[in-house]
Amino acid sequence: MTSRLFEDLPTHARLLFIRLRNLGEAVLDTANLRALKHWRPDLHITTLVEALYTDLYAADP
């Protein structure tokens, strides 16, 4: 179901992912977001995270 959701997004859609807590989930998110961007390079992906995790996400654009 999730892949179908992303398949149905229009070209150049904008996505906002919010991660406010849990370091383990934040680490997993970076891999998932990287895979999503590889699969759909047209998407504009923005992440909203706690200040504690900004370096983690910034190191993995």
Task: Outline the structure in words.
The chain has 61 residues and is α+β, with helices and mostly antiparallel strands. It has one domain. It has three helices and two strands. It has a two-stranded parallel ribbon. The longest helix is centred in the middle third of the chain and has 17 residues, at 23-39. The N and C termini lie far apart (26 Å). The model has no long low-confidence stretch (mean pLDDT 85).
Summarize the structure.
The chain is an alpha+beta fold and 61 residues long.
List keywords for this structure.
61 residues; two-stranded parallel ribbon; 3 helices; 46% helix; elongated
Helix content: 40-55%
Q: How much of the residues is beta strand, in percent?
A: 15-25%
Order of helices and strands: HEHEH
Largest sheet: 2 strands, parallel
Specify the oligomeric state.
single chain
**Distinct helical segment count:** 3
Biggest sheet strand order reads 1-2
Distance between the termini: 26 Å
Write the layout of secondary structure elements.
Layout: H1 2-7, E1 14-19, H2 23-39, E2 44-49, H3 54-58
